């Protein structure tokens, strides 16, 4: 029994991964369609310092969002911020240079025409079929005037564009959070709220996978605590700000990065009552199922309270990241061998999350499980409403929170005009 309990989750997880890899081999990765610019919007991406999270941060910042990388590795987080800022500055310089280059080429041509027009004194006055020097001079002068006006217009448009978009140093930031620590999550939320920023997108992305059996300082299993419970607490504490920032025509969005691993989870494991037959594979799968159950329940709560906030889950596929660092050595070698061929790159895998965060097609739409840019079915178990409610209640009681999300008497379209009671920090 104990051997079966250990082996079964491993087999189920690897079979699921093979199925996904087979799909990835046969299908092109989803490419994000052109999305509207997101200037003035604020996003938090947990675990945004590397892997999939980093790719999501880059793409959201590219759309003009102010993105906060919430991570527990300060060095890595600051390096990520630096690299994205440098990239943005380079992009601005390249664009400006491109505009100036095309202007100066035209200007140079006009100068040549003018130089030709001020011809040497022995230039014959009248030549068959050629414009007179006077005409050339007038023409080139006119061209220079037009080009100067165009340059002024281009400069105006560029400076207007820069003034409308946030300066590069504002677009990405780092804030420390250890999702495996409930007090760290609380402190993160306090620091964020002290900044007085709105919040339009929350991406619950950070995770650990296949870590050895262990407990957090708060006494929770590591996968469950980091991948699920920390995000549950973070979301509940940030809900107030998300609600205030959402509008009917532009809902705030909560996106939880789940995994196809959730299909392999069963409900017996869910509450980690027994650690007798600990399986790291099982623990990861269950934390990912918990995220989906939470997402559906949260969406239901948000919908019934009339908030302009939606919640969805995203499955990024199998991605070449550091998530696999805890694989056994043979499995890690095999993973390295096939990764280039079959795994999605973080940038490719980020597409669905970015689409979920910014697509107008998903405006006001929540409760989805998105894979490769499409809504697909999650596991049958994830739709079990009783299980969703059970997990919700259990999580609240573990965290010492009230069951009810909050009492929100919003006037639809108010975007914060309602009176409500929220959780205290
Ligand atoms: N890679 C895949 O094939 C795959 C497949 C399906 C789903 N996913 C999901 O995609 C998401 C991103 O994973 P990834 O592949 O990008 O893995 P990754 O490269 O390992 O990134 C995970 C991020 O989470 C951070 N993190 C871990 N523990 C944390 C904690 N206690 N507090 C704050 N941050 C913490 C990590 O920081 P450190 O590196 O400093 O620990 C890292 O930045 C995860 O939710 C994962 O389950 C990935």
How would you portray this structure in words?
By secondary structure, this protein is α/β, with parallel strands linked by helices. The protein has two domains: 2-72 and 177-399, NAD(P)-binding Rossmann-like Domain (Rossmann fold); 90-164. Helix content is 52%, strand content 10%. The chain contains eleven helices and ten strands. The strands form two sheets. An eight-stranded mixed sheet has the order 3-2-1-4-5-6-7-8, with helices on both faces. A two-stranded antiparallel sheet has the order 9-10. Helix 7 (222-245) links the parallel strand 4 and strand 5 (252-257). Mean pLDDT is 85; it is low at 407-425. The structure holds NADP nicotinamide-adenine-dinucleotide phosphate. Residues 46-47, 49-53, 71-73, 76, 177-180, 205-208, 226, 257, 259, 316, 318-319, 321-323 line the site of NADP nicotinamide-adenine-dinucleotide phosphate (NAP).
If strands are numbered along the chain, what order do they take across the biggest sheet?
3-2-1-4-5-6-7-8
**What are the distinct ligands in this entry?**
NADP nicotinamide-adenine-dinucleotide phosphate
The N- to C-terminal Cα distance equals: 44 Å
CATH architecture of the largest domain: 3-Layer(aba) Sandwich
Query: Total helix count?
Result: 11
Structure class: alpha/beta
Low-confidence stretches: 407-425
CATH topology of the largest domain: Rossmann fold
Overall structural domain count: 2
Main pleated-sheet profile:
8 strands, mixed
CATH domain class name of the largest domain: Alpha Beta
**Roughly what is the average pLDDT, rounded to an integer?**
85
């Amino acid at each position: 029994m104990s051997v079966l309990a250990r082996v079964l989750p491993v087999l189920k997880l690897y079979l699921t991964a093979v199925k996904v890899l087979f799909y990835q081999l046969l299908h092109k990765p989803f490419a994000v369609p052109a999305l509207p610019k997101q200037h003035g919007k604020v996003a938090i991406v947990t675990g945004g310092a590397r892997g999939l999270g980093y790719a999501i941060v880059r793409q959201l910042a590219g759309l003009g969002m102010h993105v906060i990388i919430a991570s527990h590795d300060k060095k890595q987080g600051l390096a990520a911020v630096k690299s994205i800022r440098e990239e943005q500055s380079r992009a601005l310089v390249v664009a400006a240079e491109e505009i100036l280059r095309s202007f100066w080429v035209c200007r140079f041509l006009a100068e040549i025409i003018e130089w030709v027009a001020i011809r040497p004194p022995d230039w014959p006055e009248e030549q068959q079929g050629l414009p007179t020097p006077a005409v050339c001079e007038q023409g080139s002068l006119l061209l220079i005037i037009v080009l100067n006006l165009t340059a002024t217009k281009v400069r105006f448009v560029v400076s207007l564009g820069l003034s409308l978009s946030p300066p590069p140093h504002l677009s990405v930031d780092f804030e420390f959070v250890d999702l495996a620590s409930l007090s760290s999550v609380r402190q993160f939320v306090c620091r964020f709220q002290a900044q007085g920023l709105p919040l339009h997108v929350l991406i619950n992305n950070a995770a650990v996978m296949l870590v050895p059996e262990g407990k957090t300082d708060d006494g929770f299993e590591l996968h469950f605590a980091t991948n699920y419970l920390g995000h549950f607490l973070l979301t509940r504490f940030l809900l107030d700000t998300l609600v205030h920032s959402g509008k009917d025509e532009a809902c705030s969005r909560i996106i939880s990065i789940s995994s196809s691993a959730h299909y392999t989870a069963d409900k017996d494991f869910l509450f980690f009552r027994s650690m007798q037959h600990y399986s790291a594979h099982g623990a990861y799968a269950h934390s990912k199922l918990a995220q989906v159950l939470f997402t559906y329940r949260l969406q239901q709560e948000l919908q019934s309270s009339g908030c302009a906030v939606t919640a969805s889950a995203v499955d990024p596929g199998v991605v070449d990241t550091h998530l696999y660092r805890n694989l056994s050595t043979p499995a890690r070698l095999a993973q390295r061998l096939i990764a280039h061929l079959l795994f999605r790159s973080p940038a490719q895998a980020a597409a669905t999350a970015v689409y979920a965060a910014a697509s107008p097609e998903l405006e006001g739409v929540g409760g989805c499980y998105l894979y490769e840019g499409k809504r697909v079915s999650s596991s049958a178990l994830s739709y079990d409403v009783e299980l969703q409610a059970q997990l919700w209640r259990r999580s609240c009681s573990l965290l010492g929170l009230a069951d009810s999300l909050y009492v929100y008497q919003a006037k639809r379209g108010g975007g914060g005009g309602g009176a409500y009671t929220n959780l205290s920090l």
